[in-house]
Automatic annotation (TrEMBL):
Keyword tags: Membrane, Transmembrane, Transmembrane helix
Organism: Flavobacterium album
Protein name, UniProt field: Integral membrane protein
Transmembrane regions: 6-27, 48-71, 83-106
Keyword Transmembrane helix: yes
């Protein structure tokens, strides 16, 4: 039995679930930040927020799928759990770094461009 296919399936299910949940939370709460940058343009802010959400999904799900290429051959269940945990933790760290980078860029650089 090829444990890599099982690991890929479990990993992608976990990571896509995390990405979708975090994306929805950021989308729901992020509109307030965008509205603060562009007051009086609610429709434009909603569209910008949707574009940010779509970019977030594409970058993170695409990166998670691309990481499957670099996995070593999994030979046992303990290694399967270990690899899934390490790879999932890596994706979560990348998501959090992108989130903070996005907030930094929106609050510091975009405000300077608008004013």
């Amino acid at each position: 039995m090829n444990l890599n296919l099982v690991a890929y399936s479990i990993f992608l299910a976990i990571v896509i679930y995390i990405i979708v949940v975090v994306g929805r939370i950021c989308y729901r709460n992020g509109n307030l930040f965008v509205l603060e940058l562009l007051p009086g343009h609610e429709d434009l802010c909603l569209r910008i927020n949707k574009i940010l959400l779509m970019g977030y999904y594409l970058v993170n799900i695409g990166y998670a799928a691309m990481t499957l290429v670099s996995w070593e051959k999994i030979t046992g269940l303990p290694q399967l759990v270990e690899v899934i945990a390490i790879k999932t933790a890596g994706i979560i760290c990348i998501i959090s770094a992108l989130h903070y980078l996005n907030i930094y860029l929106l609050t510091n650089h975009v405000q300077k461009l608008i004013r």
